User: Which sequence fits this backbone?
């Protein structure tokens, strides 16, 4: 589709990225003119120029008062809702018509830049970068927002994007975009019930979002979500900054705890160190001229960083457990864990996940900080050929809000166990095809009974005694802390019998289990149940429909 | 999905005549949002919006895919050189390569002059892979390279632009015929392929095509203009009878060349005449040209036609007026004649009535003793005298009504017995 080039934009808090469909048919994230695939969301104003993206991020140390960052957090919010950091390292914020706005100095004059304007500027920059890279006009883009974004915030973002000259095809949710990028639950075998649940862990720079996502026949449903803005890549940076500042004080007797500029310098360096530590056990950290012309040079071990960030990791796991509890799902019910955001690359973070999910597949096959952009690009390319009205029609409530089954529907096995055919929370209409055998030799008729089930209560989680964190302990203590948690899939028991169907006149003389009986169970939007039994070799079938 | 689950026989209590029983509906579903993302959602939306079932949607998608596939199939390359090979062609003598069908040898019969260089290369490669003598020998066949030589010759010919033109000029697989001018077939059906075929010889590109009934006059005219000035690259070197290159001496060569040249010129002339004939014929039977001519004629003579029409109208009006006058005249004459006849008749009637009255009066005088006194028998002389008097009276009385009055008076006199007095009074009054 060369005539309609579409892109996916991950417009994050700290960084943005652009996903495209490459000529080779693979989705990839493109770099901006400065060579960064993660384009910092920053706008800088100086005496001469206005900067966007990487260049703005580079000048933040010199010009923190006139550099706007993290403006997405304020999008669609009123001035009273936000907490304004007012110090030397942040631009001044004022209220303009109740909405937050930045007061900056540009070319020697004072300017007021509203948050949507800032977002629009940044999006325009991204759009231009993408057009420059692709060398063609961009027909449209799909953007992603966090699950907790309100309609107002979405609308603000859409407006800002439109003001930036972007034709917004659709705004989708970040974890869903990530799931698309990971192709989670999309390979649906025909007539096969695919019921998969994923835990999407999105650790961005300033927030940690957890989403439990369900995929039934490739259709996603968000089951539960939670987010914590106190955990994120930057909180790990802060731990490192504290550490480096303390080390620096130890070496030079200079206290930089209140020196914002020094701290900013350290932060820029430790960010690189942190990233390196994800790959190597030791990484150098060097900050030139931290304060009073003194440099800091050291090597930081991964272990050391993990020790100082132990509390943060624990917090992550707490939040995950909290979400699972809220969703009434056991850890075993999670089929895949999708990692999103650069911070999830930390080996310790992934190790700690194993505490909760000893067996679950942790997907790392997509670059975690590019997953959302790629997912957006994938969605964009799916809907690229559509008319705008069609896209809008398909995202209307009538289509996106559908009736879902409340209880699982299934059959009862020979030992009285419940075998789920249509799980609970399945969007209607639904059609499932299953194959059964015949039980006895020479059986003339088969009997099929359909039941509705009820979930058994979840196994009670054993409360582990909270151990006091021992930061100065040696390494092995970490391993001992890990408890063995029994992971169980939720089980169900039968409750109500829904229907009975008998298929008679089976071919005679078939051995037990040799006949293949195909049962099709359909539930339409009006709750009407249709059961079709068909013997495969003779083609004999019976069809029954509820009133 | 195959479940490890065996279906039992129906329970004993199950009555044989029913096949199904429904006991309860499913628990009322809750509304929940699904994420509008991914192809499976698109399928869901499609089903929902068009309210299709699963199988209907599958059918629609398959149809759409099939349509897309057939659309792509047309530009699908790679089938060149796959034509079935004529066994007679495989046995050709490579020395007779000039007379072989160069395209058929390479398996490009359906492309012919339209074959691109890329297609030719691909076809040649395929043929070589199949017919290379080494390959044949490897398969235990004879080391027979005759057809391989044919292939190479054909490839050489077609890849050389000059030779290819020479071959294309005389390609026997493409007819040279002139359509039958008396053909009743649809003009466009008949001539479009002819012009398409002839267009390949044009030195000028693009060549205008015949078009259809809706083509504008300008385009049609430029079409015929182009074809009358058609600049053809068609050459007839391929048909040379004498091989000038193989001549023994310079004189021989010159002689042969001259002969060939004359022959080519003749053929070229014939070909030009042939094309001219096609265009002439087409122009003659082109229904559009007829329409255009008609229109032009109409336009050119518009004034004259108008005038003629006006004259015609005036003449018609005059004729109508004359006819009306004539009719009026005839009617008047008729009326006159009738009136005259009536008058005549009346006169006659009057005369007759007068005569009758006179007769009555005479009878009256005769019956009443000639109006003499009753006691007196009238003598012949008296009778004569009385009749003379009556004649005088009758002469004196003019018109029927006076006669009638006289008669009545006399009749009254007869009744009253004083007829003689009345008679003499009347006589005195009328004379």
Assistant:
């Amino acid at each position: 589709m060369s005539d309609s080039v579409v892109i996916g934009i991950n417009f994050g808090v700290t960084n943005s990225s652009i996903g495209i469909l490459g000529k080779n048919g693979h989705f990839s994230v493109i770099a901006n003119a400065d060579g960064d695939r993660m384009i910092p969301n920053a706008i800088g104003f100086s005496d001469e120029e206005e900067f966007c993206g990487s260049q703005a991020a580079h000048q933040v140390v010199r010009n923190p008062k006139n550099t706007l960052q993290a403006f997405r957090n304020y999008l669609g919010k009123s001035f009273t809702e936000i907490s304004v950091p007012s110090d030397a390292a942040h631009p001044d914020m004022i209220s303009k018509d109740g909405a937050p706005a930045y007061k900056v100095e540009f070319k020697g004059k004072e300017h007021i830049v509203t948050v949507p304007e800032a977002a629009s500027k940044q999006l325009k920059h991204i759009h231009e970068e993408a057009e420059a890279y692709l060398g063609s006009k961009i027909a449209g883009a799909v953007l992603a927002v966090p699950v907790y974004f309100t309609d107002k915030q979405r609308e603000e973002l859409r407006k800002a994007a439109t003001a930036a000259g972007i034709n917004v095809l659709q705004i989708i949710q970040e974890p869903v975009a990530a799931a698309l990028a990971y192709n989670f639950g999309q390979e649906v075998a025909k007539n096969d019930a695919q019921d998969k649940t994923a835990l999407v862990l999105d650790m961005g720079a300033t927030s940690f979002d957890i989403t439990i996502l369900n995929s039934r026949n490739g259709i996603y449903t968000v089951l539960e979500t939670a987010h914590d803005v106190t955990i994120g890549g930057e909180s790990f940076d802060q731990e490192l900054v504290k550490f480096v500042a303390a080390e620096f004080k130890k070496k030079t007797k200079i206290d930089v705890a209140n020196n914002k500029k020094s701290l900013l310098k350290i932060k820029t360096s430790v960010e690189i160190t942190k990233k390196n530590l994800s790959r190597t056990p030791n990484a150098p950290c060097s900050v030139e001229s931290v304060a009073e012309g003194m440099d800091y040079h050291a090597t930081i071990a991964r272990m050391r960083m993990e020790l100082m960030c132990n509390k943060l990791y624990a917090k992550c796991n707490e939040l995950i457990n909290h979400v699972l509890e809220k969703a009434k799902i056991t850890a075993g019910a999670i089929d895949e864990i999708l990692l999103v955001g650069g911070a999830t690359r930390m080996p310790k973070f992934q190790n700690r996940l194993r505490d909760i999910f000893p067996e679950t597949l942790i997907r790392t096959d997509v670059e975690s900080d590019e997953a959302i952009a790629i997912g957006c690009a994938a969605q964009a390319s799916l809907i690229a050929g559509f008319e705008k009205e069609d896209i809008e029609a398909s995202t209307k409530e009538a289509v996106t809000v559908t009736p879902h089954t409340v209880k699982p529907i299934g059959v009862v096995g020979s030992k009285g166990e419940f075998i789920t055919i249509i799980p609970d929370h399945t969007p209607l209409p639904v059609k499932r095809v299953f194959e059964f055998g015949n039980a006895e030799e020479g059986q003339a008729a088969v009997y099929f009974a359909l039941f509705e089930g009820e979930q058994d209560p979840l196994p009670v989680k054993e409360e582990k005694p909270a151990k006091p964190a021992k930061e100065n302990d040696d390494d092995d203590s970490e391993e001992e802390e890990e408890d063995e948690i029994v992971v169980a899939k939720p089980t169900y028991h039968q409750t109500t019998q829904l229907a009975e169907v008998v298929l008679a006149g089976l071919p005679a003389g078939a051995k037990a289990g040799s006949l293949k009986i195909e049962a099709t169970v359909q539930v339409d939007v009006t709750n009407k149940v249709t059961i079709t039994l068909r013997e495969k070799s003779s083609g004999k079938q019976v069809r029954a429909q509820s009133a | 999905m195959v479940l490890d689950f065996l279906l039992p026989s129906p329970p004993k209590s199950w009555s044989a005549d029913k096949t199904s029983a429904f006991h309860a509906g499913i628990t009322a579903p809750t509304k929940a949002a699904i994420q509008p993302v991914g192809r499976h959602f698109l399928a869901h939306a499609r089903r929902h919006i068009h309210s299709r079932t699963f199988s209907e949607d599958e059918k629609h998608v398959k149809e759409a895919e099939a349509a897309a596939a057939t659309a792509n199939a047309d530009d699908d390359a790679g089938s060149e050189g796959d034509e079935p090979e004529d066994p007679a062609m495989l046995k050709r003598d490579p020395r007779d390569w000039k007379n072989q069908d160069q395209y058929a040898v390479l398996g490009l019969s359906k492309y012919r002059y339209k074959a691109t260089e890329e297609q030719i290369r691909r076809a040649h490669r395929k043929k070589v892979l199949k017919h290379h003598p080494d390959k044949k020998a490897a398969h235990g066949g004879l080391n027979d390279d005759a057809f391989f030589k044919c292939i190479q010759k054909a490839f050489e010919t077609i890849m050389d632009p000059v030779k290819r033109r020479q071959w294309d000029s005389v390609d026997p697989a493409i007819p040279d015929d002139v359509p039958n001018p008396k053909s009743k077939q649809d003009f466009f059906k008949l001539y479009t392929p002819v012009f398409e075929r002839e267009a390949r010889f044009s030195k000028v590109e693009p060549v205008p095509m015949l078009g259809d009934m809706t083509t504008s006059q300008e385009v049609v005219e430029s079409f015929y203009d182009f074809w009358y000035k058609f600049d053809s690259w068609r050459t007839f070197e391929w048909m040379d009878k004498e091989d000038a290159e193989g001549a023994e001496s310079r004189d021989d060569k010159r002689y042969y060349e001259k002969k060939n040249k004359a022959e080519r010129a003749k053929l070229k002339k014939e070909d030009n005449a042939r094309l001219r004939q096609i265009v002439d014929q087409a122009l003659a039977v082109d229904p559009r040209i007829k329409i255009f001519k008609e229109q032009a004629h109409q336009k050119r003579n518009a004034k004259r036609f108008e005038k003629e029409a006006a004259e015609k109208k005036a003449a018609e009006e005059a004729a109508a007026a004359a006819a009306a006058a004539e009719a009026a005249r005839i009617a008047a004459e008729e009326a006159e004649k009738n009136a005259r006849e009536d008058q005549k008749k009346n006169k006659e009637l009057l005369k007759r009535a007068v005569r009758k009255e006179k007769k009555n009066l005479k009878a009256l005088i005769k019956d009443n003793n000639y109006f003499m006194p009753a006691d007196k028998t009238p003598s012949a002389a008296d009778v004569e005298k009385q009749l003379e008097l009556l004649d005088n009276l009758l002469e004196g009385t003019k018109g029927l009504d006076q006669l009638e009055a006289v008669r009545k008076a006399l009749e009254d006199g007869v009744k009253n017995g004083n007829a003689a007095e009345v008679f003499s009074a009347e006589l005195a009054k009328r004379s």
About this structure: The first strand of chain B starts at residue 2 and ends at 7. The CA atoms of residues 350 and 356 of chain B lie 9 Å apart.
